[in-house]
Amino acid sequence: MILLVPIDFPGDIDYLRDRLRKGFRTRVEVSLNGLDPKPFFNPDRRQYSSASIIERLERDAEGAASKVLAVTGLDLYIPILTFVFGEARLNGRCAVVSSYRLDNRSYGLPSNPSLLDKRLFKESVHELGHTLGLVHCNDQECVMKSSTYVEEIDFKGSWFCRRCGDCCAPALAGLK
Ligand SMILES: [Zn+2]
Ligand SMILES: [Zn+2]
After folding, report:
1. Cβ of 3: how many Cβ atoms within 10 Å?
2. For residue 11, what is the domain's CATH number?
3. Of the ligands numbered here, which is closest to the C-alpha atom of 144?
4. Alpha-carbon span 78 to 40, nearest angstrom
5. How far is the CA of 111 from the centre of ligand 1 (A)?
6. Counting runs of H as helices and runs of E as strands, what totals does the chain give?
């Protein structure tokens, strides 16, 4: 089971849940208790620490979920980068993804909800892929291709290439 944990997420998390259910063909549920974002806020950067969110998720270890994905609308960072779309523990249990830098409005462009949904799905699959043991992939079509800029997310596909799919199939089959 994959558990989605909302942290100040303004979008439609049920829609994301349904798409992930279809993609991963496993149970995906939304946690009734979201997390308070305050402890993750860095006042100097005016951003939220993705590493702190992951540590918190790991500490809580809520319920029977095999994988836990926090979904947020907040701007995430790690110390060496100006921002991140998300972060995950390789082969771990927990990951986080943010819609903030996926939203056209963050770039002064008109809102495009269906494009935002597509980007958020891709980045959710990408971060969950890391928790399933996948590293970055050079295949242009593969969702595990790393993206620095939001346009690069639009160029890649929504799912694993065959090689990555084969690679994570045992981990995927083991999801409880
Ligand atoms: Zn990645
Ligand atoms: Zn791949």
Report:
1. 22
2. 3.40.390.10
3. 2
4. 11
5. 25
6. 5, 8
- Give which of 162, 165, 83 is closest to 128, Cα–Cα: 165
Our count of domains for the chain comes to 1
Domain that holds residue 138: 2-173
What pTM was estimated for this model as a whole? 0.96
In the reported structure, the alpha carbon of residue 144 is separated from the centroid of ligand 2 by a whole-number distance in angstroms of 5
**Would residue 127 show up in a list of annotated catalytic residues for this protein?**
yes
> For residue 176, with 0-12 CB atoms within 10 Å meaning exposed, 13-18 middle and 19 or more buried, which class applies?
exposed
Q: In angstroms, what is the span from residue 161 Cα to ligand 2's centroid?
A: 4
| pLDDT tens digits, one per residue of 26-41 | 999 999 888 999 999 9
Residue identified by tokens 């809580």 is 60
Smallest CA-to-CA distance from 53 within 64, 41, 65, 66 is with: 41
Q: What is the 3-state secondary structure (H, E, C) of 32-64?
A: CCCCCCHHHEECCCCEEEHHHHHHHHHHHCCCC
pLDDT in tens, 47-99: 999 999 999 999 986 677 899 999 999 999 999 999 999 999 999 999 999 99
Contacts of residue 117, defined as CB under 8 A and 6 or more positions apart, other chains included, come to 11, 12, 15, 16, 19
